[in-house]
Specification:
Rossmann fold; 9 helices
Length: 229
């Protein structure tokens, strides 16, 4: 199946520049960080948009990228692109109904492939923690330059920590002025318990009209990327 991804960012200078910076900083993290989980503290912080756009911009720099929608509980992408039930997704593969090649989709972005979540299963943690998932991720590492995995909010369910165990690093998406330092630190500690390095944080939904600091330095809507201390 061919998936035509929205590229609304192409007409917005600020968003464009923000994702270029994010993609560049991910590459600066080193060639060993190929498998990256994207998570957040709570729902609706914009992690799915950030993760898919990050995958898109990495592909546009010439990298071969696969984006995996690992949010098996509440996939944003399935609703956004109105994917029919006939399209196979990650749950079909993890449950043994299909092989991995059968759930990989081409996109209108050159060098970018997408694996959709599929129908909501009754046991997401068990599927994501299965040997079938681990083997697939390991195999993909020899094929793609980057594997970007969108996961559920780690502050809500354990799924992201399970996925993070198989990743080289993770990025947290935090909504500006919506998440406390204490809560963000708690999520960071959960990643550390999963032996996953926090590569950085994306400050999302920054209002440049009211935030003089970001406005002064011409930060983009999606904020800035910072390496974790």
């Amino acid at each position: 199946m061919m998936i035509n991804l929205d590229k609304n960012h192409a007409t917005d200078y600020h968003v464009n520049e923000a994702y270029k910076i994010l993609a560049a900083n991910v590459q600066f993290c080193g060639s060993n960080n190929k498998i990256i989980a994207i998570t957040s503290c709570t729902p609706n912080e914009g992690k799915s948009n950030v993760s898919l756009n990050l995958a898109t911009f990495l592909a546009e720099t010439g990298k071969k990228v696969i984006f995996i929608d690992g949010d098996l509980r509440k996939s944003v992408l399935l609703g956004r692109y109105k994917i029919g039930k006939k399209v196979k997704g990650l749950t079909h593969f993890l449950s043994g109904q299909n092989e991995f090649g059968e759930v990989v989709n081409e996109t209108n972005v050159h060098r970018l492939h997408v694996v959709l979540a599929g129908p909501t299963p009754p046991n997401p943690p068990e599927l994501l923690g299965s040997n079938r998932f681990k083997a697939a991720i390991k195999a993909l590492k020899s094929i793609y330059d980057y594997i970007i995995i969108d996961t559920p909010p780690l502050g809500s369910v354990i799924d992201a920590a399970i996925v993070a165990k198989e990743c080289d690093g993770a990025i947290m998406v935090i909504e500006s002025k919506a998440i406390s330092y204490k809560y963000a630190r708690k999520v960071k500690e959960q990643l550390e318990k999963a032996d996953c390095t926090l590569l950085g944080v994306v400050l999302n939904k920054v209002d440049l009209n009211h935030d003089k600091y970001y406005g002064k330095y011409d930060r983009a809507y999606y904020g800035e990327y910072k390496h974790a201390q």
